[in-house]
Task: structure prediction
Amino acid sequence: MMRKFFFAMVLVFLDAASVLASECIEIGRGIAAQKSGVLVRSTPVVKEGRDMCVVVFIVPAHEGEKLRRVEVAVPAD
Result:
């Protein structure tokens, strides 16, 4: 009986994490598109008890400048 309960709890937590991860991907795509960049990574994290997404994207070079790597943390709400 305890094994079934434990398995059910693991499924609940995995499902919640995968939903947050998919939300972070969409948030990351939106931010990268707004900044005319290319999404590299979008990771769900918990900071100060809040669900956040850490988004990393590359902004193309302009007028002889180098590529820029930008990392931002935004709320997952």
